[in-house]
Amino acid sequence: MTTYSKTHALMQRGIDFLGCEHAVLCGAMSWVSERGLVSAISNAGGFGVIACGAMTPELLDTEITETRARTDKPFGVNLITMHPQLMDLIGVCAKHGVSHVVLAGGIPPKGSVEKIKEGGAKVIVFAPTLALAKKLLRSGGDALVIEGMEAGGHIGPVSTSVLAQEFLPVLAEDHLVFVAGGIGRGEAIAGYLEMGAVGVQLGTRFACATESIAHENFKKAFFRANARDAVASVQVDPRLPVIPVRALKNKGTEEFTAKQREVAGLVDTDGLAMMEAQLQIEHYWAGALRRAVVDGDVENGSLMAGQSVGMVKAEEPVADIMAELMNQCETALGARG
Length: 337
Ligand SMILES: Cc1cc2nc3c(=O)[nH]c(=O)nc-3n(C[C@H](O)[C@H](O)[C@H](O)COP(=O)(O)O)c2cc1C
Prior knowledge:
This protein is α/β, with parallel strands linked by helices. Helix content is 46%, strand content 14%.
């Protein structure tokens, strides 16, 4: 049996917090992180997270039930703070006794963290700045994910390596910090663990695993792509604060530019509220990602991917990817003597 003693020693606080074997989360990926992939990650000793995305409470209810039928290991649920039924979704998580809820997509609305905790779950938060991280950890967040701009999907402006240097020396001793964005190999995991992270979160590296339901066209596009093909979307109208999304460049990239112009036009002519404008943009992304992941339309759909996509070369079972990452990490730590 392989032992990962050095890696596990550095991950111990993360392992205790998550209740799994390795403190490696597979970050929620809309349409991809469903019952199949989530249970496979947790069964392989990692921590799977269901992407609730735009699901209704009923759909989330079913997804949790189906995931639980496939694994007796812990897994989490990722909820988008902007979801109009956020409180109901939190209720569904509580009903199922979900152990960890990840709040993504912005500052948690008033009462949401408290409600999650009342339901007995631990709360994992994201924070783009140190000041906000401290605030969220003071007001009930149990653990923090810092995610750099190398990541796939919605991104902030700062790279993982810089975030790690800003956050870990200040927070790592007293708080649980997981690092995400651009991690494709175990050597990088070793580096962040040595800096004080208690674990890591990966998305891109797991998106095309054998157990992932992503369409084969989506997977093929990943296998062909290099790091430089995963580009961040550009904001076309300075008044419409669009969160950039990193995805493989295709025709859909241009369509998004047109969509932004259309929504900005509605703000001008119909007085569309900014919050509503942002929701329209998010609906657009959810639809575009679905087209690529579910329908296999890799021309017009959104191929959200991080820069680590260049390290994804073939379809592999989750357990093999996990073992490879852990072996690389352990070997790297071992080489330090
Ligand atoms: C296809 C795709 C979809 C994603 N969807 C979501 C999402 O719905 N919610 C979320 O919080 N993060 C989402 N992410 C981000 C991942 O959870 C994870 O944090 C990120 O992929 C980590 O960086 P990496 O891609 O460099 O490994 C998505 C990422 C990808 C690649």
